[in-house]
Design a protein that fits this description.
Order of helices and strands: EEEEEEEEEEEEEEEEEEEEEEEEEE
Oligomer: single chain
Largest sheet: 10 strands, mixed
Number of helices: 0
Low-confidence stretches: none
Strand order of the largest sheet: 1-4-7-10-13-16-19-21-22-23
Helix content: under 10%
C-alpha cells in the first residue's frame, strides 16, 4: 500500500514511513523518526527527531510528541495530547546570556507507550515512565507515573480507578474490591485480577 502525504506536510530527511501510512495536513515530522505500517498521523501534529512509532498507530490532530518517546504497535493517541521529556526545563543558561540547546542531552528522559494503549484527548504525559499494554488514559489526565497493563487512569495527577479489556470496555473498578477471574462481557476475553495486578488468561 502506498504512503499518503498531504501537500502541506513537512517531512524532514531520514524519516521512514511504513506502507499504508497516511500523513495529513500541516504535520511536521523531524529527522530520524520512524513510523510503522498503516499508521494515521492527524493534521497539525508535531513529531520530534528520533521518535519511534510502531505499526497501526492512530495519532489524532494537534498532538505533540517530543524526542525520546517510543510508541508500540496498535496505540491510539487522541487529539491535543502533549508529551514531555524534561522534568526541570529552562530556556537559558543561568547567566541568561545563552539559550539552552534543544538537542537531546542528559536531561532528556524517555517515555514508552506499550502496545494497544489508548491516550484520551487533551492529556499531558510526563517522562521517565511507561504506559502499559492495553492501558487507557482518560481524557484530560496528567500522567506523572507509570501506568500498569490494562489499567484505566483518570485525573490530575492520573490515578488508577479500574481495569479495561483489550476491546475497550471497563472490566471493573478497584474500589469495588473485585478480583479473581473476570470475563469481558463484550469479547469474552478472560483476565485474572489480584489486587491491582491484571493479566490476560
Amino acid at each position: 500500500m502506498a504512503v499518503k502525504i498531504h501537500a502541506t506536510a513537512l517531512i524532514e530527511k531520514d524519516v521512514a514511513l511504513g506502507d499504508g501510512t497516511s500523513v495529513w495536513d500541516n504535520v511536521h515530522i523531524r529527522f530520524g523518526t520512524t513510523v510503522g505500517e498503516q499508521c494515521i498521523i492527524g493534521e497539525k501534529t508535531y513529531i520530534a527527531c528520533g521518535v519511534h512509532i510502531g505499526h497501526r498507530v492512530k495519532i489524532n490532530a494537534f498532538v505533540y510528541i517530543c524526542n525520546a518517546v517510543t510508541i508500540e504497535d496498535g496505540v491510539m493517541i487522541s487529539a491535543g495530547t502533549i508529551f514531555t521529556n524534561d522534568r526541570f526545563p529552562r530556556a537559558t543558561m543561568p547567566d541568561l546570556k545563552q539559550l539552552r540547546s534543544s538537542d537531546p542531552d542528559e536531561h532528556t528522559l524517555p517515555t514508552l507507550v506499550r502496545q494497544g494503549a489508548t491516550i484520551g484527548a487533551g492529556c499531558v504525559i510526563g517522562n521517565d515512565l511507561s504506559i502499559g499494554r492495553w492501558a487507557m488514559v482518560g481524557m484530560g489526565s496528567v500522567v506523572t507515573r507509570s501506568v500498569p497493563d490494562f489499567h484505566l487512569v483518570l485525573g490530575n495527577p492520573a490515578r488508577s480507578v479500574g481495569c479495561v479489556c483489550k476491546c475497550g470496555p471497563m472490566l471493573g473498578r478497584f474500589e469495588d474490591g473485585f478480583g479473581g477471574e473476570i470475563t469481558c462481557g463484550h469479547c469474552r476475553t478472560k483476565y485474572f485480577v489480584d489486587g491491582q495486578t491484571v493479566r490476560e488468561i
